[in-house]
Amino acid sequence: MKKNIGIIIVLALSITGAGLFFLIPESGKRSGPGSLRLEDQIAAVSVRTVEASEDVLEDYIRLSGDIEAESTVQIYPDVAGTLSSFLVRVGDFVREDETLARVDPSRPGASYSISPVEAPVQGTVSEILVDPGDTVSASVPILKLGNLNSLIISARVSERYVNRVKTGQTAFITIEAVPDRTFEATVSEVYPVLDPASRSMKIKLTFSDLPEGIKAGMLAEIRLVTDRIEKAVTVPSTSIITRNGETYLYVVKDSAAIKRPVTTGLAIDGKVRIIEGLAAGEAVVTSGMNMLSDGGAVQSVGNRGEKDA
Length: 309
Prior knowledge:
Elements: H1 2-23, H2 38-43, E1 45-51, E2 53-69, E3 72-75, E4 81-86, E5 93-94, E6 99-104, E7 115-118, E8 123-128, E9 135-136, E10 143-146, E11 151-158, E12 170-175, E13 178-190, E14 200-207, E15 219-236, E16 241-243, E17 246-253, E18 256-261, E19 263-268, E20 271-276, E21 283-287, E22 298-303
Parallel strand pairs: 1-22
Antiparallel strand pairs: 1-21, 2-11, 2-15, 3-10, 4-6, 4-9, 5-8, 6-7, 8-10, 11-14, 12-13, 12-15, 13-14, 15-20, 16-17, 17-18, 19-20
């Protein structure tokens, strides 16, 4: 009886050992091409990656400006007196030498002929500065004429940005009255002196092509490009780690995270330029890197496109 029990125990151990042999894969054996060993899969950190891309990177500043007539002329009366009447309204187009208003120079006890105010140039009445019955003088303008066929944008740049602005720079303009469209303009004039009250510098921008539907007096939102870098290697800003004075990121290669020190440059709109340490096309970790160590096993759970990054 004891002998039979011993045989049964030996057989049971043999069967159990055989079962374990089939359940546990051979150490170091992969279940498929490029996959991790079972023990590595258990220890691998799940990460998301994106390929470093080669882009055109533009730095810019945002401003607000007013759309104005490129040339504006202030109209003055020839004599002092009472403004008796206007013969034009805002928006009227007038020709050179056309009568715009009449001034009565008469005084108590003296009567004089009405003096006409004539247009020195042709243009559109953009603003009337006084009302009939007001007292006027030869040193104060009564209205403005402008060339509304040629519009510009007038804007002011804060003191902190003045050294980044120069003539010839490109700007992209959006206007609330013309939705879903972006217009291109160029910095045509930079004033050399700052306004001491506002600590800002005035600039003027000229439209590349004068678009329809835009009128003087409208508000323009300006995206002024101050720097442009061609073929810049960029990564999402979320992939950059700065710790203990060191800037680095993690690159995934052969299912392992490789710590890569990098030199960064311009950072704009969620993208960072990599000056040294990375090439376009390399897979960069964008999330999950806080659990990584150099050479540690990783398992990608999907790549992130630039829009998601």
